[in-house]
Amino acid sequence: DAKTTQPPSMDCAEGRAANLPCNHSTISGNEYVYWYRQIHSQGPQYIIHGLKNNETNEMASLIITEDRKSSTLILPHATLRDTAVYYCIVRSQIQGAQKLVFGQGTRLTINP
Amino acid sequence: DAEITQSPRHKITETGRQVTLACHQTWNHNNMFWYRQDLGHGLRLIHYSYGVQDTNKGEVSDGYSVSRSNTEDLPLTLESAASSQTSVYFCASSRGETQYFGPGTRLLVL
Q1: Chain B residue numbers touching A93 (CB-CB < 8 A)
Q2: Average pLDDT of the residues of chain B
Q3: Is the peptide bond before A7 cis (omega within 30 degrees of 0)?
């Protein structure tokens, strides 16, 4: 699975959009980009994933660059409850390759 | 509602004792995983299973074992607990792309 690079920490004001970047320059054609987050002391929570098209769900939007070497997770209206560590993970969906490899993630702090 | 549970939520044990952490999911997911989380290391995969009677080693499997006798459960056993196994343990399950994590078990080995 390709490695990812994320900033260790970010701050965002409550109510503003939080944009979390992720670099995955060695991503291969069959690898998806996944985002999970972990709120303090809880188990990680799935947010969104995508292959090459931008994706949106009720939690967030995922913007993947055309060359697929980087992506951005967007929380459109951040709230204090969005304070968490956000993990960007790249992995294949080949049968049997269901494992997730977590990096250090980005610690996002939403400020009132 | 379907869910994934872990027990106990907190455990204190002594070095050398055998410890078993339970993981139970009611989604009927084929895939189940055990991770440990330590400061400075993020989550690391211990063992995983793609179905009944199937088990596989992850990146930090030494000192741990799992067995999968049914779809719902994947217990994690520490054969002889060591202080280095003090950690927070998370179980997860998935059918497709998304993994769903349990609330975690905090284990302290004295």
Answers
A1: 97
A2: 93
A3: no
